[in-house]
Structures are given as structure tokens and as C-alpha cells.
Amino acid sequence: MDIKHMKYFVEVVNQHGMTNASKSLYIAQPTISKAIKDIEKELNMPLFDRSNRQLVLTDAGMVFYQKCKEILALYKDLPREINSLVGLETGHISIGLSAVMNMNKFIHILGEFHQQYPNVTYNLVENGGKMIEHQLINDEIDIGITTLPVDQSIFHSLPLYQEELKLVLNQEHHLANYQKVKMAMLKDEDFILFNEDFYLNDKIIEAAKNAGYIPNTVSKISQWNFIENLLNAHLGVSILPENIVNLLDSNFKNITLEDPGMRWELGVIWKRDKYLSYATRQWIDFMKQRL
Length: 291
Description:
Elements: H1 3-14, H2 18-25, H3 29-43, E1 48-49, E2 56-57, H4 59-85, E3 91-98, H5 103-116, E4 120-127, H6 129-137, E5 143-148, E6 155-170, E7 180-181, E8 190-194, H7 199-210, E9 216-221, H8 226-232, E10 238-241, H9 242-245, E11 252-257, E12 263-271, H10 278-290
Parallel strand pairs: 3-4, 3-5, 7-11, 8-9
Antiparallel strand pairs: 1-2, 5-12, 6-10, 6-11, 6-12
Pfam families: HTH_1, LysR_substrate
Organism: Staphylococcus nepalensis
Keywords: DNA-binding, Transcription, Transcription regulation
């Protein structure tokens, strides 16, 4: 087998079938089918369970899929690695960003890094923490910024900053004049939360359960700026990181929550035992020096 065979196989898995892989690669389906059969013949074991209507990976197929992705990533990055060794210091870094993080601090460090390595390019993807971890595990991104702690058996991590989580509500809300509020006081409130991709969602639900109730969620979102419109419409209350609260306009009240769990920490994470490009390693070292 060769790199081309591995590329065909990975694309079949990613596209959930040979027909879609054929369209994606602009290659005739019989060519891809033959390549898969050649791999299975060489390995002397099936990679797909063909008893289902859809192609399903066997145990051997799953292992082969993960290894193929690693090999293809190494192959793709080889020219950049060679260039970096001779002083060109080019490269590309794909970074997953939490949709509820303090962008100012990150962008400032990124700007400093760009001054030192002007030939490095970036792909910035905004998501919830769970999705960022999923993307790292599947080698879709190089670095993620998300909630700590993370599973140390899977990820390396570097603390970035800590902050309070604040209750946010319309100025006309009956709790608007309070300086501090306990989670138990929100039992009968409607909640505007981030969706299940965000660890912030889990944290708020856990705090509510500890206070004796399950929050009544009336809306789930993926972008914090939608909250302003929902609060204006009196749809409910929300709990947000302090840095996001500071970006909202003055029409809303933010109130301290008397709950020790209403703090969180964000950090930089990357996958253990994954090959990192020269540019990515330099970026991690750069972050360590400034945090």
C-alpha cells in the first residue's frame, strides 16, 4: 500500500461511503473500491463490516483509520518541517477557540507571535469546549482553548486565566436590585443557556442541581451575542463569564452569584502523543513564556 491508498481509505470513512468519497476525490468509484480491497488483502483482514447497508469499520479498520490519519498528517507537514529546519520558519496552526473566552488576551499574544514568525498562518475555529476536545482527538485542529481541567491522560494543558461567572438579567427583572444572589433563588426562573457542546452548560446545571432543582431552559444558543436580544425580550436570565458580561451593553444587570462553583478556568490544551508541527511547538513555547 502507499500514501494514495491510505488517502482513499480515510476519505471513504470520512464521507461515510465510497460514492461520496469518489465525488470528493474526483476519482472513479471502482478505483477506490480496488484500493480498499488491495489494502485488506495486504493486511489479510477486513477493514469494513459489509453486513450493514452502510460501511462500518471493524476493530482492525478503526485502528488502521487512526494510524492512516497520523501518517497522512506527517506526510502533509513534511515540507513545512524541512523548510523550518533550514530557517524558513513557515507553517500553519489550526486553533479551536472557546466561544465564551476573553479574546483580547489571546489576540494580543497571537499578534506578538506573528511579529516574530510572520510567515506562519492560522485557522481559527470557534466552538464549545466539548467540540474542541472532539476536534483535537480527531486531529482536526492542533491546539484548543477551553475549560480546565481536562483529561490529563488525553491532553496536555496550560492554564490561561480564571474568572467569575455572573448572573445576567434585564434591568426590569425582579432580582435586578440585588447585589448578590444564591442559586436557590433562581429556582423558578427561565434560563437562557449555551448548548450541550459547552461545558458552561454542564456547570450551570450542576450548580442548580446542588441548589435543589433542574433549571427550566427556554433557549439554548451557540453565540453569546444572541443573549442580548433574548434578555431584551424578557425570555429569562443567563449566567455568563465576566469577560463576556463586560461586552454587553448597559441595559442589563450583572449580579454576583454566592456559589463557590461559579468560577471557571480556561486554558490551552493539545493532544498527547500527537506529532506537532514546528510552528505549533513554537506557538506552545511562546504561550508558556507569556502566561
